[in-house]
Design a protein that fits this description.
With 157 residues, this protein is mainly alpha-helical. It is 39% helix and 0% strand. The protein is built from three helices and no strands.
Length: 157
Amino acid sequence: MTSDRPEGSNSLPDDVPQLPVPLLDADTASASGEAALPGAHRGGFRRPLTEPIDIAAAAGSAVPEAPEVRWAPPPPAPLPRSAGWALTFAILALAISLLVGWGFPAGILGAVLAIVALRRPWENRGVAVWALCLSVLSLAYSAGWLWWAHMQGALWS
């Protein structure tokens, strides 16, 4: 490789622009004359919340154990549902009470489950209201059938 510069010369060719060399501030240089590392603390932040904190464990000292951290908590247990069951029993009770008067146990069960569902905030209120209405209607039909049967025969005489 040949060069137009004389050997041992640190000068640049004429076509290279000369840029000023930045000088180190007195703040960036340490007491020994060496430059500080980028990002090193220079004593400027002394306000609360921005002040550097001390390192807890020095060399050779005992390090306290870290607390157990659960990154993914276990999924919650499924909440009990009763609105759908109440509607099922209410429809069943209404179908039975339209034919015979002995559908009232299913109607009572549907009404109880519907009331329980209405008291729970996570239940579907619309389903619970329908279940309660149909259960009460099935109880009315069952009572009507039982009253009619009582009037037709000497059931309790």
